[in-house]
Amino acid sequence: MAQISYIGHATVLVDMGGVCLLTDPILRNRVLFLRRHGRNPVPKLLPECPPDVILLSHLHYDHTDLPSLRKLAATTTVIAPKGSGRYLKRWAGVEVQEVVEGDTVRIGDVEIVALPANHANAFSIPRPMSACLSYVMRNQLAFYFAGDTDLFAEMREIGEQFDLDVALLPVWGYSHRLGAGHLTPLTAAQALQRLRPRIAIPIHWGSLRLPGPNLFWDSVPHMSIPPYTFANHAQHLAPTTHVHILQPGEQITIQKQEQTAKTK
């Protein structure tokens, strides 16, 4: 059994029965010009499950936030793409275990496998250029964290190799337009045809926004519609995958080989 808590954007807390993993942590309410939309569930969720492991998919500012990394306990294991360790040590004060595609790291009974992504190199001046990665986390259950990506051919191999219980898939971003290297609600549903997870949870939508009043952003379609559009596409393209839409702060409990799960 495992529990998934959605914090927002690409930040997801996964409790895999004693090992807590946190993906691409954005723990504060502002990142450069971006603002958190809605309440921040971090003060409630992180004390309940302090992260043992941080998974960083790439060094773009909305996925690797230095002040958020500085909030972590010194004992936290940080896993990130090769080429990012020296920079993160200097500016965030964290020790990094660098990985490339195919590398495996074991923390307790959880095996973490670094896998490819299609998001171009992470180049955010003055940060170093590094690869973009996705990850599988598995013990009795297997979770796929896509990070930030577009469709790529190896998704089919990932689905065949890992027999995924859950896929955490990005379905939008923080703006009304998406550039290259991102999944849309339609292409995210097409990714399900390749990955074939039993459960899919849409992420990377509705939690970060550009400046402006909340009342305005509450009415903007791209802040709320993408996960539901994704679920509709998934129903037709990947009917064997059950889609669970989590709002920031919501949790879901996953059990092996179950098509349904409990949300709270």
Verbal overview:
- This protein is of the alpha/beta class and 264 residues long.
- The chain has a single domain (2-263), classed as Metallo-beta-lactamase, Chain A.
- 21% of the residues lie in helices and 28% in strands.
- The chain is built from seven helices and 18 strands.
- The strands form three sheets. It has an eight-stranded mixed β-sheet, with helices on one face. The protein has a seven-stranded mixed β-sheet with strand order 9-10-11-12-13-14-16, with helices on one face. Strands 4-5-15 form a three-stranded antiparallel β-sheet, with no helix packed on it.
- Helix 4 crosses helix 5 (185-195) and helix 5 (185-195) crosses helix 7 (226-237).
- The radius of gyration is 17 Å and the shape is globular.
